[in-house]
Amino acid sequence: MIVLGIESSCDETAAAVVRDGHEVLASVVASQVDIHHIYGGVVPELASRKHIEAIVPVVNGAIAQSGIPADRIDGVAVTQGPGLVGSLLVGFSFAKGFAYGHGIPWVGVDHLEAHLNSVFLAPDPPPFPFVALLVSGGHTSIYRATGHRKFHLLGQTRDDAAGEAYDKVAKMLGLGYPGGVVIDRLAAEGDPEKIRLPRPFLDKDRYDFSFSGIKTAVMRYIQTHPNTFKSDQAHIAAGFQAAVVDVLAYKIIHAAQENGCRHLAVVGGVAANQGLRTAVSRDAAKAGIDVHIPSLDLCGDNAAMVAAVGYHRLAAGERSTMADDVYSRVKFRPNCR
Ligand code: ATP
Ligand code: MG
Ligand code: FE
Fold first, then answer.
1. Average pLDDT for 212-235
2. ipTM strictly over 0.85?
3. What is the pLDDT of residues 229-249, one digit of tens each?
4. N or C, which end of the chain has less CB nearby within 10 Å?
């Protein structure tokens, strides 16, 4: 089955053509970073307008790249939520029109479930059961996966998401938006021991997280070292990254052990973090656990992961209807499945 995936939940307009839920034939992502960068964050109204400009060329580009004629597409999968309503509506409305025009089925997909499914697009997908760390701009959670559509929530952040903390720390240091990748690069040049930051919830025997304390500790450091923090920014980045990565790596490996899983996955935008990839791989190897982290292009927002979920939905006979609408807040309740 050939599925066209469409994603427009935030500031990336993306389309992909995926065969049978795992073989990516084409994946196109148009980022709006250059526009929002000026404002230090995503401006919702600008994002919607840019999605409108980008959606047709991005979808046409993905179909052309895939080498599959448009009339051979079997179904459409589109992000329904959570995200910015104005942004979601562009992709969602386009998908409705495309499916109606081609007379093919379509289905709305949850963005978080899509991130979790990105791991099935890699050449060596994890066998069930496995535990998954979803770590992105808006979410940080741990799940136990027992089937393609069966993700059980084990714990989640009580305040900031890890990616959000990265972006806020980058802003405090004057490094612009989005900050994750800049801090990651800077951290490699600093000494992680020089500025020691707290590791919240590390001692708790639960899978919940808290990142606002680490962020506040960075702010306090900057306020108390107004003259030197600029020259120390690589050490701040390294200290911050070490604290975040320590907590994330410890919890996901602990979750794998406690849940009897020999495989773990890390997905979402922050899964692109080099420090996290290295630490999880190193510590998991010591514990005899196999690690599955998607390639960098599948960590950030993309439409291939949307098509991957859509494939299972459409194959199971699920359909969305013209009356369906987008949603802005988390709706994905994996425990209920
Ligand atoms: P969500 O998926 O929770 O709805 P989102 O779609 O905005 O939120 P993603 O696109 O999955 O989030 O990820 C973006 C986040 O990943 C940003 O916070 C960004 O700073 C962070 N990020 C990207 N690359 C890195 C990196 N190398 N290190 C740390 N963080 C990173
Ligand atoms: Mg984004
Ligand atoms: Fe995302």
1. 96
2. yes
3. 999 999 999 999 999 999 999
4. C
Q: How far is the CA of 35 from the centre of ligand 3 (A)?
A: 18
Within 10 angstroms of residue 160's Cβ, the number of other Cβ atoms is 21
Cβ–Cβ under 8 Å, residues 209 and 163: no
Whether ligand 1 lies within 6 angstroms of the CB of 181 is answered as yes
Q: In this structure, are 207 and 69 located in the same domain?
A: no
Whole-angstrom CA distances from 29 to 114, 117, 297 are 15, 17, 9
Residues spanned by the domain of 315: 2-116+299-329
Q: Does residue 92 line the site of ligand 1, with CB under 6 A?
A: no
**Is 246 within the bounds of a domain?**
yes
Residue 55 CB: number of other CB atoms within 10 A?
Answer: 22
Same domain for 82 and 141?
Answer: no
Q: Residue 66's pLDDT is what?
A: 98
Q: CB of 14 within 8 A of CB of 29?
A: yes
| 139 in contact with ligand 1, CB cutoff 6 A | yes
The residue type at 325:
D
Residue keyed to tokens 């040049």: 189
Whole-model pTM?
0.96
Whether residues 277 and 306 fall in one domain: no
What is the Cα–Cα distance from 211 to 199, expressed in whole angstroms?
9
